[in-house]
Every structure is written in structure tokens, then in C-alpha cells.
Amino acid sequence: MLRAFIRSKSGLAVITGAGISTESGIPDYRGPKGSYRLGHKPVTYQEFLSNPIQRQRYWARSMKAWPIFSEARPSLPHIYLQKLESLGKIHYLITQNVDSLHHKAGSQNVLELHGKLREGICLSCKGIRDRTDIQSELEKKNPAWISKDSYTHDDPSLRADGDVEPQLQNQQYSTFLVPQCTCQSNAIMKPNVVLFGENCAKLVVDESFKIISQVPQSLLSSH
To answer: Is residue 34 scored above 60 in pLDDT?
Structure first.
């Protein structure tokens, strides 16, 4: 039925969520093995802004998880959607995911509602930094934290929001040096994603409504 629907349509908008990336080794939040079911509690926007220890905790865990997260490859559904886009069946992809796997699959018209982990943003000057550059800074500043732990894509320590529960021994989060922007010494560098308790950018929300209003029909992918 779905194939027949897609064959009969063109110019669709497809909305995707976390389920499409689980085959790529990135856990979701609410699935059988999701982060919520495992008791994981992501940092909130207010905690990140107000508590330096929470920022140190976030970036320490993110530094350890980034090598795994960044190596994730598109799943078959990502690739299938890209092929449908190339055939003109899909004009837009709207995703709640922050893993950039639609981009890795080659999709062109992708709106990332909740941002992208491949970037960091300075909350003072709004400058954008590539996450790979941030990783280099973190590893240079925190050599004692460079992971000797062995993590895999199916490790239950891996979180849906791109961090991991480190196997702490002598290290404490208060010793971790966070990334900085060159605009000022006390500027807060944040992952360029919508944290829990944070609002989506109005421009992004407006763009999503504009897309939905322009296409003949939309398809919600729960995979």
C-alpha cells in the first residue's frame, strides 16, 4: 500500500524521527532499548546555561562519544528516501534527528528541526564551529580524558543525544576544560541542537509550516 501511494505521488514532504536511525546504531528515546527506558536523563537547556558543571559533564561525555557517533552510516531507509528524492517523489525531508544521516545519505532538501550535532554554536556571538574542530580542541585540552574505554554502536552506554556514560575512575567533571569561542573568554559554547526545555528556532518552525503548505501531501515515517 505504501509503495503504491508513493508511486502515485510526487513532490512529497516526508517527516522522520529517531526510529529511522536505530539501524545505524544510534539509540532512540522511547523505543524498547531507548534512552528513556534505560533511565538516561539528558541535560536540560536551563541546566546547561546555569551550571558550569553540567556543561563540563556534557562536553566530557560528548568528547568520548563523538568518535562513535560521527562514524554512524545511513540506514537503508535513509538511502531509500534519498533515492525517492532523486526521482522527484520527495521534495523535502523534515527530520527531528540531529545525526545528519540524511545528509550523509545524499539527501539535499533537509530541514533539521532540532538542529545538528555536527556543529557547535557560541551563545554570545552566534558563531558556528564544526564539531570535528571542537573535538580536536577538547582532546588537546583534556589529554587525560581521551578515551581508552572500548565503546561500540550497540553499547548501552551510548545515548540518543550523542554522548556516553564514561567509565570514570580518577577524573572528575570539574577538571574538564570545555570548548571556547574566540569572541570572549567566558562565552558559552553549546551543541547546535535543541536541548530539552529549549524552544525550536522560530525561523525553523516557520520553514516547516511553509514546506507543509507547499506540498500536495506529507508522509510521516515512524521507522
So the answer is: no
114 is catalytic: yes
78: which 3 cell numbers? 535513509
Interval 119-134: pLDDT, tens: 999 999 999 999 999 9
For residue 67, what are the domain limits?
2-221
Sign of the Cα pseudo-torsion (195, 196, 199, 205, in order)? positive
Q: How far apart are CA 10 and CA 1, in angstroms?
A: 16
Task: Determine if residue 125 is labeled as part of a ligand binding site.
Answer: yes
Rg of the chain over Cα atoms, rounded to whole angstroms, equals: 19
Cell of 23: 539501524
- Residue found by looking up cell 568520548 in the block: 64
Distance CA 193, CA 195 (A): 6
- CA 176 from chain centre, in angstroms, equals 22
pLDDT for the residue 18: 85
Annotated catalytic residue, options 103, 114, 153, 223:
114
How many domains are there within the chain?
1
